[in-house]
């Protein structure tokens, strides 16, 4: 699996490009640094207009504010959980937290609703959707079994977890999410924020559970 990281700038989330026969982007940042993001993608010898799929791990503006830019320059399909898709389709500035950033949220066309256990086939690369509520009610992660890699969104970082004190957060659900992830064989973690865990991913999930004790 080929993964390129665009580290979050300012309020942007991390953005991950997964390349295969189908090219997929995990999250899109705020959109405030979109020109910089495009330059980074071109630096990976990837043309942004060739993007096929964009998956939001959740609907918060720092992950989904840039969706509209990618939808405008490519024919990519936007995919998200049902709860996230509902907020994105409405352009809900409260649920997406766009108003917290002093920004507007454009209503978006979500092409496909993702449910727990759904499989996204990119070619040789296969990603399984995992429901990981807690940071938001509609949060999801993606798991690649060959490399035991988890695209965790804001469920877990290398040294922490996403906030659980926001309007749509559920601390009890986050606890269950971390318990579920701890039972998986996670070697790599590609988080929504901060550095990638290239090995010993399960260790960071175990550490993350202590944040809710």
UniProtKB/TrEMBL annotation:
Q: Which positions, given as ranges, span the membrane? A: none
Q: Tell me which SMART domains the record gives.
A: Lactamase_B
Q: Which InterPro entries match?
A: Metallo-B-lactamas, NDM-1-like, RibonucZ/Hydroxyglut_hydro
The Metallo-beta-lactamase domain covers which part of the protein? 12-193
Indicate what this protein is called per its UniProt record. Metallo-beta-lactamase domain-containing protein
């Amino acid at each position: 699996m080929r993964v390129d990281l665009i580290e979050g700038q300012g309020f942007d989330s991390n953005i991950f490009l997964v390349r295969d026969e189908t090219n997929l982007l995990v999250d899109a940042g705020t959109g405030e640094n979109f020109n910089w993001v495009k330059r980074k993608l071109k630096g990976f010898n990837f043309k942004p207009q060739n993007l096929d799929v964009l998956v939001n791990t959740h609907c918060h503006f720092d992950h989904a504010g840039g969706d509209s830019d990618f939808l405008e320059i490519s024919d990519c399909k936007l995919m998200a959980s049902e709860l996230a898709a509902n907020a994105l389709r409405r352009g809900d500035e409260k649920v997406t937290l766009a108003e917290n950033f002093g920004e507007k949220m454009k209503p978006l066309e979500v092409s496909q609703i993702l449910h727990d256990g759904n499989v996204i086939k990119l070619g040789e690369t296969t990603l399984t959707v995992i429901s990981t509520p807690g940071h938001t009610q509609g949060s999801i992660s993606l798991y690649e079994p060959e490399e035991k890699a988890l695209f965790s969104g804001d469920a877990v970082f290398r040294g922490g977890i996403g906030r659980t004190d926001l309007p749509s957060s559920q601390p009890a659900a986050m606890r269950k999410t971390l318990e579920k992830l701890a039972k998986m064989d996670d070697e790599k973690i590609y988080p929504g924020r901060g550095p990638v865990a290239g090995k010993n991913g399960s260790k960071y999930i175990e550490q993350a559970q202590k944040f809710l004790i």
